[in-house]
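<backbone_tokenisation>
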Amino acid sequence: MLASLFLIGALVTTPQMSVQAANQTAVEDGSGGMARAVNRMVGGIVSYARWPTGSAATARTMCVVGAPRLTDRMAPDVPGPGSVTVRRVTTATVTPECDILFLGRMPVADRRQLIAWVRGRPILTITDDDAACIYGAMFCLSNKAASISFSVNIDAIGRGPLRIDPRVLRIGGGEGGAS
């Protein structure tokens, strides 16, 4: 059923394995097709995240740092209840009020600083500037052949208090059926 709500493609990345799956089609049709695809993908990822007890609000704040590669129109489309407010911030103004940190293009030193700061905090990290998912974000978007896919950094997820529904990994492994 989850796969029928939105098509998610995943590349699950661990030190030992990679699994390729289907992609979210992102055809530029003059009406923001790429932006819609990115926002559906980000919203879907957010819907798989569970914040620790005590922060059960369904309204989340996404802080965008740097310049996103795939779209400047960030407005995550979360399926079901919940919403995401988007704030553009600088490396120096990121605060714990950011539930989600979206990392666009930025100097590597700034990216490393932010990833180090996030470790151990209940902050979901997503980037579109690291397709191989090697710099520490939890989810890494990429655009190949007019489609959006994502990589999952299991190590980064395991280091923090957020819980990611394992069904996102099943979709990545091709086991997520449309029921």
